[in-house]
Amino acid sequence: MTPAHLPPAVLAVRGAALAVALVALGHTLWNGVVEPGHALAFGVLVTVGELARWGALPGEREPAPLGAAGALAYALLGRSAGQETAHGVLQVITVVVAAQLLASVPHMARGSGPGPDQAARRVLAVAFAAVCFQPLHHAGRTERWFGEGPYFALFLLVLLVLTALCDAVLAAALAAGTSRPYGPQLRDELRALSGIGSAVCATGAVMALGVAVAGLWALPVLCVPLLLTQVSFRRYAAVRTTYRQTIASLARSTEIAGYTPHGHARRVAGLSTAVGRELGLTGPELTVLEYAALMHDIGQLSLVDPVADGATAVLPAAEQRRIALLGGAVVRQTGVDTAVAVVVEQQADPYREQQTAARIVRAVNAYDDLCGEGVKGSLGALEQLRLGTGRDYQPRVVEALARVLARGGLTRAGTG
User: What is the pLDDT of residue 180?
Assistant: First the structure.
């Protein structure tokens, strides 16, 4: 997207981050760097963390957790080896911005650098943490209010939770308007905080406390657990990606055999996932939904003669039920999660007897089938679904599908 076509929220976040970064850089260049050793140590840490974006998988909420933790630790650093530190908010922002710029050079050379939205989020989130902590510390209020024991650690934890919430709000604002409304996007971001977000916050707090007691020597030791967590997560995500590719290949067997049109399973899976997000389904629920949508037609392999265009939605209810049960039996034999088989088996049930994932797959499958008839089109297919809300399709799902399509969601013409 060109700047002129960006949503106002995206322009506002990027503009705010750029303004904060320019003010911080200008202030630091004019006044010099306070405690350059600490600035260099944390700058190197953030740079190394940002370089660890290499190997990041698509869709990772935080591809550089070590960089985020190091930046937050510097923002919440008040002492080093028992001695008071003197850096302020603007120097924290300067170090983080400089580290991001330095780390982006090799990424940009490979054509895989972090996007401006990620950089803007990092700058504003770190600025928020530094503004909440540094002025209070320099005024001596943190020591008077919380002392140096567990209450101070709890104070840091609360600040990090608020910072994580701030980052989630920014991430939702940057993503909303491009494909989804702000509410569902924010809900997803808040749910994601319990994963890598909690590890980043915990590591940032431990780093700040560790340096306060032991000095900069604590940094390399405290980095190791988060690095190991990042490596383990990426290996797990890679296995899941391979697993999904295997399921997608199996789902294409109906296309190769001529039972369904080319790209049907992929279209239904993509649009079902979008509708599931619209309805507030969680990560594991979306995974089950996607796998079931990919494999929902696998039962058609039992047919002697293929249905025209694979449109099972126009078959008699008894035949739809038989295909659904056979499809569920095939899914159970593949070793895929039993929940996926249950969704496939429920495809021919009245919607009041279905779980949410089955309702979504059935409605989206019918929509794609009806569009494929070539006479109804998108609006006609939606109207047909609305006429079937008495028994076959849940009204809430149909309306969610209509909203996704109205925002330019996946369509038969657009993704085939």
Answer: 61
